[in-house]
């Protein structure tokens, strides 16, 4: 029945039991070499950059093929290194993060989610400190800002709610002032069913997704709040098959995730052109690198392991609901794990965009999320390298562990919908 039945999240797409993992082997170097980019005699800056990235990735894979002869359990997920990096970042961030001072709830969410995917628990005292900090980011008028005293913003609200859901304590849940959150969502709602990111701010598909995600998680969603919303989302699907930020723009992996996930929350996923979306998303996986690009003719990037990869379990669920028998995987989960584990790990912890780039919290969180999707797709468990490389499953709509989603929904559903749920007048 898909992800939502009568407004309730359905978890049937998640493996109910820990099944035996299928251990995958690496692609052969000969197989990889055949996938090299051909510029067809037309040299551009883009083609030169693509060739440069392919050469860096191929070198990484070649080096791995030599090291694996000594250690057959390679490639290895450097979980202990990532754990130390993330826990350090919870307490102290370098000056390089000053540009994200207005995105502090995001920093909390990215770190907490990455730790949760690796099954790493944080102590109750630290949980309480994070919840108290996020409470300071909450506006008296509802919603969360990028830091204490900041204006409320839908993106910051989404990040703060996700972080509090991951914390999973009653103190964390009670930080969210649901009646004021609902009023904030109504203020962001536009007459055509879209949402602006903040008061007098930009209107795009991120706003729709963030609004629907927090509303459904915290049980403040109502039919009136989303009247006309699915029609607006559908208008963002492009001729390529993906979704753009707003009608008439270019298809993009992050926007496509937002559009599809928002439609699924509304129970309207079947109304978009699924075949076109599947074709577009499949073609975003890079043949040599194994990772995903965000748009046509762009370079591979580790974060799109999730933004593009999460579409596959969602599309699979919708096709299965319509009676299609899906026997084969939609993407090469082996190649994606190969790219993440071989090309996106920093030896001192943290993950990155591509070889030669710096590690950061954003790419650590979303690249690990992509690894989760690759490992757990279609109710099977496929692990490349050491069996200990397994990470926890992530919910492809919210990008939070399903057990965290379930626990939060039970808590908020027991509270009922706030009494001011119809504010259309």
Strand and helix map with partners:
Blueprint (H helix, E strand, L loop, with lengths): L3 E2 L2 E2 L12 E3 L4 H5 L11 H23 L11 H13 L12 H14 L6 H13 L17 H14 L2 H6 L2 H11 L16 H14 L10 H6 L18 H13 L8 H9 L21 H4 L3 H11 L11 H11 L7 E2 L6 E2 H16 L5 E3 L17 H12 L12
Parallel strand pairs: 3-6
Antiparallel strand pairs: 1-2, 4-5
Question: If you had to describe this structure to a student in words, what would you say it looks like?
Answer:
This protein is mostly helical and 425 residues long. 46% of the residues lie in helices and 3% in strands. It is built from 17 helices and 6 strands. It has a two-stranded antiparallel sheet with strand order 1-2. A two-stranded parallel sheet has the order 3-6. Strand 1 (4-5) and strand 2 form a beta hairpin. Helix 5 (124-136) runs antiparallel to helix 6 (154-167), helix 8 (178-188) packs antiparallel against helix 9 (205-218) and helix 9 runs parallel beside helix 11. The radius of gyration is 21 Å and the shape is globular. It starts with a strand and ends in a 12-residue tail after the last helix. The model is unreliable at 1-8 (pLDDT under 50).
